What we know:
Blueprint: H1 5-13, H2 16-30, E1 39-40, H3 42-53, H4 55-64, H5 68-71, H6 78-82, E2 89-91, E3 94-96, H7 100-109, E4 113-118, E5 121-126, H8 128-137, H9 144-157, H10 162-172
Antiparallel strand pairs: 1-5, 2-3, 4-5
Helix pairs in contact: 2-3, 2-7, 2-9, 3-4, 3-10
Amino acid sequence: MEQSLLERIIRLDENDELNIIRILILIDKMAGRNQKQTIDGINKLVKLDFLLRYPVALERALLKLNKDKDIHNIDIKVYERESVETNLMHFNYGPWDSRYRRFLTILEAKGLITYIISGKTVNVAITQAGHKTVDSISSFFEFQDYVTRSGLIKRHFGSYSSKKLINFFYEVFPEMVTMKQGDEIKI
């Protein structure tokens, strides 16, 4: 039996490797040119990944910032606009996917990221091996959207704190304000 495009997209989202690659590319871009910057907290990482994972959400966020010239760089595909599938759930601090801890544990176990504890915050940093991995996979056409979109996210939202991001999300995605904890986020 032939799978529909939507069924294939849903299966891709269930693929840990694809999610791990997306997150690794984002962490690498957030580290900057010198690979020294960290993402201040896992909640911030998840919010930034929300924008990467759902380019329609990134488009809405850039529209809110009046960054019209950057919107064409997102290059949203038809299936990305029409996909009704999402695994992210609304929790107290915004979007969340129960698999994030597993993804990050795999990345750390492979030596691609590291954690730097600062008080109660777990900062996420790219390692040299992680950066080299991103350098090699960035040449693949299939990952170019992640690379480009991660650069936009870094430029426009990298300096935001987790709290500023969630407040911004509530402005841009007012439907999140009325959602109950555990509800699927549909953008």
